[in-house]
Design a protein that fits this description.
Layout lengths: L16 H7 L7 E6 L2 E6 L24 H14 L2
Antiparallel strand pairs: 1-2
Length: 84
């Protein structure tokens, strides 16, 4: 979908609400602005926060036997108890 916006006299650009909502960008979100040919690339400054679980799949490799959800839950609970 194509959206339009205007540059204000202060040099501000309002990102359309559907785009902000889709990316979960809130007031105060900082962006990196890069020039690319005839346009710009705008991307969030912090990539540390992952937007959804599907972005994490395959991020960490694991070699070994499959673990059940129950086994994983027990391991997480044990690690939490150790950190107390």
């Amino acid at each position: 979908m194509i959206h339009t916006t205007k540059l204000s006299t202060k040099g501000q650009v309002v990102l359309p609400k559907p785009i902000r909502a889709a990316h979960r960008w809130r007031p105060g979100t900082e962006f990196i602005v890069e020039e690319h040919g005839e346009g710009i690339l705008l991307k969030p400054k912090s990539q540390a926060v992952t937007r959804n679980w599907h972005e994490l799949i395959g991020f960490v490799s694991y070699k070994g036997p499959r673990k059940s959800i129950r086994e994983m839950d027990r391991a997480v609970a044990a690690a939490a108890r150790e950190k107390r």
